[in-house]
Design a protein that fits this description.
Blueprint: E1 4-5, E2 9-13, H1 19-34, H2 40-47, H3 52-64, E3 68-74, E4 77-84, E5 91-96, H4 105-119, E6 124-130, H5 134-140, E7 144-152, E8 158-167
Antiparallel strand pairs: 1-2, 2-3, 3-4, 4-5, 6-8, 7-8
C-alpha cells in the first residue's frame, strides 16, 4: 500500500523534493525530544546539519531507494517522516514536527513502515531507540525492548540507545 489516509493525515512515499523539509523536521524533532537526555554536541551529530550537502544525500537516498522513506503530510505540508532499511529491517525515526507531537503522526508513520516491510518480505523490524522515546515504540507500537545499545551516528559520534524489535505481521 503506497498511501495511508486518515481524516486529515496522508502518508505517502517520500519524493526528492521533500528532502529539505525532512531534514528540517528531523533537526527540530531531535533538538526538542533529545534536549533533556543528551548534550548539545550529541544532538548536532544526531540531527545532522541543515545544509545543501545533507539535503543532497537525502535526495539521493530517496531516488536510489536504498531506504524506503515515508512522509506524513497534513494539507500537503510534511509533518513527519520515517525510513525503513529493506535489507536489515532497521527503522529510522519517525521524526515529527515538535508542535505536532502526540497527535498520532509518529504511530501512523510506524504503521505505514510496517505495511511496507510486510510488502517487501521484511520479517522483523528493529530500532536503536534514543532513551527518551523507548516508550513510544514499546508501549504505543508493539515493540519489545531487547537490550541497551549504542548507535553509531553518520555525522560522527555515538548515541546511547535501547534496541527494540518487533515481528512484522502480514
Amino acid at each position: 500500500m503506497d498511501r495511508f489516509k486518515s481524516e486529515h493525515l496522508e502518508i505517502r512515499a517520500a519524493q526528492p523534493a521533500d528532502a529539505q523539509t525532512m531534514i528540517a523536521v528531523k533537526h527540530a524533532s531531535v533538538f526538542k525530544i533529545g534536549a533533556e537526555n543528551y548534550p548539545p554536541e550529541q544532538l548536532v551529530q544526531w540531527a545532522g546539519h541543515l545544509d545543501q550537502t545533507h539535503i543532497d544525500v537525502i535526495k539521493t537516498r530517496v531516488k536510489q531507494m536504498e531506504m524506503l522513506f515515508q512522509v506524513a503530510t497534513l494539507q500537503q505540508v510534511v509533518m513527519g517522516f520515517g525510513a525503513l532499511h529493506l535489507d536489515t529491517g532497521e527503522v529510522e525515526g519517525p521524526y515529527v514536527r515538535p508542535e505536532h507531537g502526540r497527535e498520532g503522526i509518529g504511530s501512523g508513520l510506524m504503521l505505514a513502515l510496517e505495511q511496507q516491510a510486510a510488502l517487501h518480505s521484511v520479517r522483523r523490524l528493529f530500532v536503536e531507540a534514543p532513551q527518551n522515546v523507548v516508550e513510544f515504540y514499546t508501549r504505543h507500537n508493539g515493540f519489545e525492548s531487547i537490550r541497551p545499545s549504542t548507535k553509531q551516528l553518520v555525522n560522527g559520534g555515538s548515541l546511547a540507545t535501547t534496541r527494540v524489535e518487533k515481528d512484522v505481521v502480514k
